[in-house]
Write a structure and sequence with these properties.
This protein is an alpha/beta fold. It contains nine helices and 14 strands. It binds zinc ion (ZN) and fe (iii) ion. Fe (iii) ion binds next to helix 2.
Length: 259
């Protein structure tokens, strides 16, 4: 049985390796775009479904996430929500969001979680009724965002908030980085059967030009080295120098930056 009032999520490629996401509530006819990687592509996807854009929900200020804000706002007169911390860096922002804020799309709740690390103001959006997370550039499948403005401790804390969500949470990440991330993960997490299985699956999907996303928290907890720095195989690769969880996490991030 399909619920005709269920939220509809539409994901599509933008730019070289970003994804755009539209969230549509049929009951209220409200539609949100998570970030605005490419205004022309997002407009085209809206028009193809006859959806009117009412909300833009920005995760952070980078151009591949907020670059389409002004063009879309001009066309649709939508409201732009984003991190309070980054209000000055996000074009056209109307509503400043903080940890624990709840906004609504029709009758559906969207919760804000602050996840600094990739940028100092980064936020993610969690839909508790659907158990869906829009993770921006905080978490990728088998990876996490680069630390442009934050410390390893901040990022580890941010990922901890995501790890505390229900394991069956569906996670939409903003980039298709999975294959490269798996290749790195295999180099430090040897003989992980779940990772090997996912590698085959991801290669197959990408060879057919299909997305590897969304992912789930339960899969990421088994294959993403950034969520499991204490796994014995990873700890062994990193050696005795890094005995604390946070030090291991920081070392994994450093190695990925050089990979
Ligand atoms: Zn970014
Ligand atoms: Fe990005």
């Amino acid at each position: 049985m399909t619920d005709k009032n269920a939220l509809q999520i539409h994901m599509f490629p933008c730019l070289s390796d970003n994804y755009g996401f539209l969230v549509h509530d049929p009951a209220s006819r409200q539609t949100a775009s998570i970030d605005t990687p490419d205004a022309d592509v997002i407009s085209r996807e809206l028009e193809a479904r006859n959806w009117q854009l009412t909300h833009i929900l920005n995760t952070h200020h980078h151009f591949d996430h907020a670059g389409g804000n002004l063009q879309l706002k001009e066309h649709y007169a939508c409201r732009i929500y984003g991190p309070a911390h980054d209000a000055e860096r996000i074009p056209g922002m109307d509503i400043r969001l903080k940890e624990g804020d709840i906004l609504t799309l029709g009758a559906h709740e969207i919760r804000v979680m602050e996840t600094p690390g990739h940028t100092s103001g980064h936020i993610v959006y969690y839909l508790p009724q659907q158990r869906i997370l829009f993770a921006g550039d905080t978490l990728f499948s088998v990876g996490c965002g680069r630390l442009f403005e934050g410390t390893p401790a901040q990022m580890w804390d941010s990922l901890g908030k995501i790890m505390a969500l229900p394991e069956d949470t569906t996670i939409y990440c903003a980039h298709e980085y999975t294959l490269n991330n798996i290749e790195f993960a295999r180099s430090i997490d040897r003989n992980n059967k779940d990772l090997e299985r996912y590698y085959q699956e991801a290669r197959q999907l990408r060879s057919e030009n299909r997305p590897t996303l969304p992912t789930t928290l339960s899969l990421e907890l088994r294959v993403n080295p950034f969520l499991r720095p204490d796994a014995p195989a990873i700890a062994e690769t990193l050696g005795a120098g890094d005995s604390e969880t946070l030090a291991r996490f920081a070392e994994i991030r450093r190695r990925k930056d050089r990979f």
